[in-house]
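TA notes, week 10

Several of you asked for a full example with nothing omitted. So below is the full record: structure tokens for the whole chain, then the designed sequence directly under it. When grading your own attempts, check the secondary structure regions first.
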């Protein structure tokens, strides 16, 4: 069993492991007293792959003994000074649950002990009004030895200030200022492990943004690769959240797949399609496996909201129970598909190919050109496809064929919007304006498509209810409401599309 907590802390260089130099922090950021909690002796062995894939993505996995929280500790980056920490009980080998959570980073490579870090820690609680602990300040005397490769021993002293749960982040800034007044600066490494790897000679991990770029600076290739690299990092970081079924994680990961697919398609003039088209197919597969759970989630909430807004006298029969039966079966199957996909060899192969894409990208000649012209042309091409699809759809009579055509137009709107995202720096305001205008079109088309899907689900649920001898009145009423919602969306589409198209963007792009 694992436990989860959020860790928010900052590290500083310490003059020594003695506390004699520590400034009086009373009165700083609401601190009323500093309470000595004694000394702890910590011993941690950190695990990583041979090429330090965890450290390269700012993640750490260690087996710790000593102190109040002995066990396995997996720390994943969040933002600013925060990390997410997943803990598991002590065991000899890496727990399977933690091994799964780092799979998107290790890509199936073996985890080995890379460094051992021992620390003698002096702990002090920073206490505020009413005896509430605001933070913990520790002074660590650290000793590190390499395990993966021969190296040297390293030692240093450092300070950690870790916020208690629900403490305002401003306290860190206040303590930061007090330490800074004494000339105590931030640690140059974000973690003990990063410093240990460097000083023992095991290796210096390079985060993705620090890796060499094969495209020239200020080029179209650099713009596209920077965008792709950010999305790939997002995909990797979302994997543990999807496995733990955290809110909105599946949706975000699926959207990331779509963005990657769209940009690889839109910028074929920059990246060779013989290499990227097969990658797009694999992203489509992953998005499809994720989509089953996300679509079910959206549909469930839509149908449930529809029932809840009906007056009680119009809800005839066991409507809520019937909806729950339908949802449980579909949700269980969708969740199984997601986890099977993330545990598959196909997914690992996709992650490896994505890593290769930015390390050795298949650049074409236009990748070396100035980005504004190359990227504007790609955006206009997607915008033209959207115009063609939407025009065709609106000329069709109402019915299934029109619904399908509008759905295809919605996909084209997404592709156009995503194509503008890597170009916002080089193309500027025209790309931003087009992205916003097309997003509005996409939202209206999305409402229309959600109604189409909801009506199909309502029809199927109503058939089951009818077969069980249950009243069909409420299901028919909900179906009629969804039909009306689709018609309303179609009425809104024309003016929204007209506003998005009247911005003079083609002239702005082409000069």
């Amino acid at each position: 069993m694992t436990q989860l907590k959020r860790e928010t802390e900052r590290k500083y260089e310490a003059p020594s492991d003695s506390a004699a130099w520590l400034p009086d922090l009373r009165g700083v950021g609401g601190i009323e007293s500093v309470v000595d909690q004694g000394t702890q002796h910590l011993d941690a062995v950190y695990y990583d792959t041979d090429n330090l894939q965890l450290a390269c993505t700012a993640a750490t996995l260690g087996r710790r003994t000593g102190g109040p929280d002995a066990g396995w500790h997996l720390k994943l980056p969040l933002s600013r000074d925060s990390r997410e920490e997943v803990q598991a009980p002590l065991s000899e080998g890496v727990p399977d649950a933690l091994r799964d959570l780092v799979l998107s980073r290790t890509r199936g490579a073996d985890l080995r002990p890379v460094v051992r870090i021992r620390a003698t820690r002096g702990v002090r609680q920073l206490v505020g009004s009413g005896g509430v602990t605001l933070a913990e300040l520790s002074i660590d005397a650290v000793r590190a030895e390499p395990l993966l490769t021969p190296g040297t021993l390293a030692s240093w002293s450092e300070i950690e200030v870790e916020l208690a749960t629900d403490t305002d982040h401003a306290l860190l800034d206040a303590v930061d200022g007090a330490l800074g007044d004494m000339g105590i600066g931030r640690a140059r490494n974000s973690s003990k492990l990063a410093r240990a790897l460097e000083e023992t000679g095991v290796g210096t991990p390079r985060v993705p943004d620090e890796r060499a770029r094969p495209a020239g600076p200020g080029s179209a290739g650099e713009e596209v690769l920077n965008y792709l690299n950010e999305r790939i990092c997002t995909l990797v970081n979302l994997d543990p959240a999807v496995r733990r079924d955290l809110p909105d994680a599946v949706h975000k990961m699926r959207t990331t797949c779509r963005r990657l697919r769209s940009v690889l398609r839109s910028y074929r003039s920059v990246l060779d399609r013989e290499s990227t088209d097969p990658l797009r197919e694999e992203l489509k597969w992953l998005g499809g496996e994720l989509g089953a759970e996300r679509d079910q989630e959206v549909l469930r909430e839509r149908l449930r909201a529809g029932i809840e807004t009906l007056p009680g006298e119009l809800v005839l029969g066991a409507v809520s129970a019937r909806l729950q039966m339908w949802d449980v079966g579909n949700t269980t199957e969708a969740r199984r598909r997601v986890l099977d996909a993330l545990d598959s060899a196909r997914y690992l192969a996709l992650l490896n190919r994505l890593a290769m894409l930015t390390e050795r990208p298949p650049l074409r000649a236009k990748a070396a050109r100035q980005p504004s012209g190359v990227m504007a042309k790609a955006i206009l091409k997607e915008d033209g496809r959207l115009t063609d699809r939407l025009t065709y759809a609106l000329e069709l009579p109402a019915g299934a064929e029109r619904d399908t055509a509008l759905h295809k137009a919605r996909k084209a709107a997404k592709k156009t919007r995503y194509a503008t995202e890597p170009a916002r720096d080089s193309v500027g305001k025209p790309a931003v304006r087009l992205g916003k205008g097309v997003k509005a079109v996409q939202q209206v088309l999305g409402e229309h498509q959600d109604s189409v899907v909801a009506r199909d689900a309502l029809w199927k649920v109503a058939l089951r209810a009818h077969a069980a001898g249950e009243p069909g009145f409420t299901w028919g009423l909900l179906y009629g409401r969804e039909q009306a919602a689709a018609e309303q969306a179609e009425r809104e589409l024309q003016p929204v599309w007209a506003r998005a198209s009247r911005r003079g963007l083609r002239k702005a792009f082409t000069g």
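The chain has a mean pLDDT of 91. Use that as a sanity check on your answer.
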